[in-house]
Structure formats: C-alpha cells, structure tokens
Amino acid sequence: MAPDLGGWIHSFAVTDTQTHKAGFTLYKITSIVFPRAVPQALTTLVVWRRFHDIKKLHRELKRRHKSLGLSGYMPEPIDCSFFKRFDQDVIRKRKAYIVSLLDFVAQHPALYKSHSFAQFFSSEATPSNKIQKLVQKAARSFVGRSLEIETDTVDSSVKSREDIIIAEIFPNDKDEYEKAEDVEEEGDAIVDNGKSSDNDNSLNTSLTTKCNLRFLTPMASVESEDSDYIYDAALEFSSAVQAEANLDYNDAYTRYKSGVDILLKGCKDDLNDDRVYIARAKISKYLARAEDIHERFLKNSQRSIASIVSTSNFQLALDVSCNTNSESSGFYLERPWHHMAKYKVNALLGNKVLLVSCITEPLKPQYVMKGIEKPSSNSPTQTVFLPQHIPYMVDLLAFFQSDQKIFLLLKLALGGKLIDYVHSKNLSNEKAQKFNEEEDKSSDICKISKDAPDLGPDLVESSKQLIESVSNTINESEFIPRRMNGILLYSIPQHFLKKWSQQLLVAIHALHEKSVILCDLHMDNLLLDENSQLLLSYFYQNEGLSSDSFIHKALNPKALDNHFVAPERPLTLRSDWWSYGVILYELFVGLPFKAAHPGQIDLYGFVQYPENIEIPKVKRNLLERLLQQEPEERLDYERIKQHEYFADTSWEEIKQQGFNTQ
C-alpha cells in the first residue's frame, strides 16, 4: 500500500532477511518517497533492522499516537515469542506486520515527522560490528568476565526520543541503561539459538540467577513495564508540563503524581545506586511541583477561567468566576486593536505604564494603560491570567491585543500613591508646625514691644484665622512627623493604619483565592481612591514553562533591593505575607524596612527597630510573626485575621466595602 500524503506517495517494502552472527534476524526495509506530480524525483532509503527495533519504534509511536489523540488503531506486534522467531512462518508474518505498521505511520504527519521515525531510517543507526562488539563485551561483564569498553565504539550520533528523555532523567546512567537493554536482547538470542556450549550455558545460568534484575530477565520482552519505567515517567512529566501550559491544572497535577508513582515503584527494585539517587531527586522535584499546583490552583480555589488566546507557546485567560450573566462572559472586555487610537498618552507613570485619556468620550476621562509583551516564537511557554473584581484592587476595564503585545485598560486611582499622600501630609504639617512656632514668637515680640507698628485689624484677623485653620487640620489628620538624627519619621493616624492594614490583607487574600502570587508587592503598589480607601495596583499572573522548569515573572528591582521580596525561592503564597510584613513595618515605624536592615536580609536573626522609637507590643508581635525567614513559621491569612491587632474587626464588612469601591 502506498499512502497519499497530500501530493506525496510513500511506499514501504520488506524484501529480505539475514541472520546476524550474534544470533538474531535482520530485516531489509525499503522506503520510497516521491511527489505525485514528478514520480521520477523519488527518494529511496534502505535500512536493516532487528525486530527488536521494530517493537521499540512501535512502543514510542504508540505513546505519541495516544498522547496526541490521533485517529485509527496502530497495528500491534504479532508472534513476539522468541522461541519461534526463527521460524520462516513467523518471519513472513513479521515482514507483513512491519509493512502494515509503516503504512499506518505514513498516514499521520505527527508520527512520520517524529524524531523516532526519522532515526529509524537513519543509516547511522544500522547495527555495526563495533556496536555488536560492545554488546558482547557488556554481556561478558555480567557473568564476571573482564570488560574493557572503548569509548570510541559507541556512535554518539545515534539518538532517539527515548534516548533524549532517559538522558534528561538519568544523565549519568545513559550508557548503563543502553548496555543493560542490549545485554537482555543478546541473552534472548543466545537462548533461542539453542546452542549448548559451556560458555553459552554459563551465560544463560548467570542471566537466570539475576532474573530479579529489571534489565537482565532473559525470558522477558524488552517492552516489559518494569524495564521501561524511566521512559513512562518522563512521558507523564512531559504531558504534565503541557497540561500546565494549557492551564489544565487538574490534569497536570494528576500526571505529575502519576510520574512520581512510576518512579517510586520502578526504583524500589533498582539495584543501581546512582540511578536510584537521581530518581529520588526527580521524585522530590516533581512531587513539590504537584503539591504547589494543588495548593495554588486546586485547594479551595475560586478561580474560573475563559481562554481568550491559545497558541503553541502563549495562553491568555480571563477570570470569569465573579460574572453572573451571559453578557459578562469575560470576552466582552476585549476591544479591537484599532480602538487604541481613541486614547491619548498624557504621561509615563512607570515601566510600560501610561496615563491616558479617551478623546472620544465627552469628559475625556483618564485611565491607566499597562503593557504586556507576548513571547517570541522561540521563547518558553507563557501563561497570562487576568483576574477581575478583586476587593481593594483597581479594576480591569478592557484590554487590547496584537500579535506582539497586550494592553490593559485600568481604572485610575484618583488619590495617587499612598506613600506620596502620607509624605505630603507629614511635610505640610511640618511646615505648618514651623509656621505656628514662628507666629507664636512674633506674637510674643509684639506684646513686649510697645513701639511696634500698627498692623491693622484686617491683617491681624487673617493671621488668627490661618493659625486656627492649620491647628484644626493638624488635630484632624494627626499626620505629625518626627525627626530622628536628621531623618524624618512620618506618622500615620491609628485609624488610617488599621483601615489600610485590613484592606491590604483582604486584597492579598482575594488574589490568593485566584491562585495569583504577587511575588514583589511593595509600597509603590499601594494607591488611594478619592475617599482615601486603599487600592492595590493591578496584579495578574504571568508565568512561564521551559522544559520542566517553572518560571515566575521577572521581579521588580526596587522591591528586591528594599527587601520587599521574601528570601526563599521559589516564591509561594506564603511569600506574600513577608511582603505584607515589610509594608506594615514601614507604616508602623515611619521608616523604610531597608533603612533598619541595610545588609543582606539573612544576616539578621530578628527584626531591627530604630533607637528611641516606641513601637507598641501588639504591633511588634505582628511584625515579628510576619517577618520570619522560614515560610512555614510565618502567619498565614487566617492567623493574621485572628491576631490581637485586628481584634473586633468585621472582616465580612471590610470585604464588602472593598467590592463597593470598584
């Protein structure tokens, strides 16, 4: 049969066999490919292969066929019993099977374009005397004979998909894996040949006594599940990474756990200490990844997504868990790219953050626009998740996207940055204090000097009103700064401190419920609305997957330099409570955390405070239980809520007020 591959004809034939001197049968396989329009432009490949190679190709392509969900049923190997493999009838059936398998593969581009299929027809992979010499030496090594393997006897260019995965899982044991598998097949050939020499009997006896070893069971097929646990685990991990890239966290979690189970069962009886050591390292790595997925995305998760864009290395998803009607499916937030022309840039607020106004709306309202770069074609897989309706976080109003970029249109926090508001209040009050002191001195001088000129009743009355107004402002705001060794320590009224601490706590927890780790939360992320309510700048999930590595978004340099980022790696949900503690430190103390901890954070065994500054015991306790360098020792959300500092707080009321601010 010659499959038509969209204008190409692919034909296979198995025309001849040879018996190798090592005792196994080689099959001559011919592949002919030519375009239908130009039959004379054909390509012919001829390779000699053992049936062991056919079964290996079947095993690899069957897994690929299943993982990709391709149509049809792949032909299964027949007459695999090694006792009959030299019978002419069995050889004839195997020839027919090889042709049927290759014809099936040729109907699926994902199979015949795979590395395994290309390698199968590579002339470099044809058995050679050097390889057989290595096999024979390896066999003798297992029966106590001397072994001197020459490194140049192995063709390093011969690779298959299994080779690549095994090298990744067990990079130091690749030669041992191949050597043992070849010895197993060599042992089969000797047993099947029926030779009765002393050497053959000693080899057979030695192999039989080691039947408990996975790679040396002479009566087992090379497809044995035990002998292939490495490959099976690698396939599960590969599928898990792909599922994670597609935001299918249930499937990713299941596959990570399945791969770990395969390694656990396989290495339990593995007598190779080095391989077991590496397997355990992989088990620890992927088990931690599975647990992280469960903690972030599956355990009590309130995250529901609608996939907006999905390509080979990019996934954009929108949170729709808070939408209650069909119109609010999440897709309505996307605007056509050409609508970007409606917005005029007024100012640059930060890296990839713009202040814009809509020129087509009557009042020309202002918004914030934030840019996200999409990955290039050769970049790691990237996933972007956009949460919605987070209490005390600026709301996402719309987004625009091209092939290279995404722009988020966000609500403008009219009160600006919280820290700027606090600084301005403290500085203005400091000036008012100085003015008041100077006015008091002037009044005293006027009382003492009898010859003072007449200032006039209007000017005196105006001065009195100004002093009274400033005094009332100071009393109402209580933003009274202090100076220590020339450094201004700003002060925040207690009711503002309590309110902002509560609101920030609720916002962080709401993002955690959507499985979003903030990672680099810092003071510049704290904003205020027109009513002095706290608003968090917009946070979204932006993470990447490269091979089996999990990559978080790039961290803000300012947050890193000023110790807002937790010291542990990788960052987890608990890492954000460190950032929360650093922010509370600055609000409580009136001084940046870095100012009291100028060195590396791991140099400090406990939280440092400026001298001559009194911090109430309750506040100190909260800070010190948040700023623990070991994540497990930090307070989490539930324990923070129960802390004495937040006694008598109505958390439901706080949360509801957060939704009302949007």
TrEMBL record:
<keyword id="KW-0418">Kinase</keyword>
<keyword id="KW-0808">Transferase</keyword>
<dbReference type="Pfam" id="PF04212">
    <property type="entry name" value="MIT"/>
</dbReference>
<dbReference type="InterPro" id="IPR036181">
    <property type="entry name" value="MIT_dom_sf"/>
</dbReference>
<keyword id="KW-0551">Lipid droplet</keyword>
<dbReference type="GO" id="GO:0007399">
    <property type="term" value="P:nervous system development"/>
</dbReference>
<dbReference type="GO" id="GO:0004672">
    <property type="term" value="F:protein kinase activity"/>
</dbReference>
<protein>
    <submittedName>
        <fullName>Protein kinase</fullName>
    </submittedName>
</protein>
<dbReference type="InterPro" id="IPR011009">
    <property type="entry name" value="Kinase-like_dom_sf"/>
</dbReference>
<dbReference type="GO" id="GO:0005524">
    <property type="term" value="F:ATP binding"/>
</dbReference>
<feature type="region of interest" description="Disordered">
    <location>
        <begin position="183"/>
        <end position="203"/>
    </location>
</feature>
<dbReference type="Pfam" id="PF00069">
    <property type="entry name" value="Pkinase"/>
</dbReference>
<dbReference type="InterPro" id="IPR051866">
    <property type="entry name" value="Intracell_Sig-Traffick_Protein"/>
</dbReference>
<dbReference type="InterPro" id="IPR000719">
    <property type="entry name" value="Prot_kinase_dom"/>
</dbReference>
<keyword id="KW-0524">Neurogenesis</keyword>
<dbReference type="InterPro" id="IPR001683">
    <property type="entry name" value="PX_dom"/>
</dbReference>
<dbReference type="Pfam" id="PF00787">
    <property type="entry name" value="PX"/>
</dbReference>
<dbReference type="GO" id="GO:0035091">
    <property type="term" value="F:phosphatidylinositol binding"/>
</dbReference>
<dbReference type="InterPro" id="IPR036871">
    <property type="entry name" value="PX_dom_sf"/>
</dbReference>
<dbReference type="InterPro" id="IPR007330">
    <property type="entry name" value="MIT_dom"/>
</dbReference>
<feature type="domain" description="Protein kinase">
    <location>
        <begin position="343"/>
        <end position="646"/>
    </location>
</feature>
<feature type="domain" description="PX">
    <location>
        <begin position="1"/>
        <end position="128"/>
    </location>
</feature>
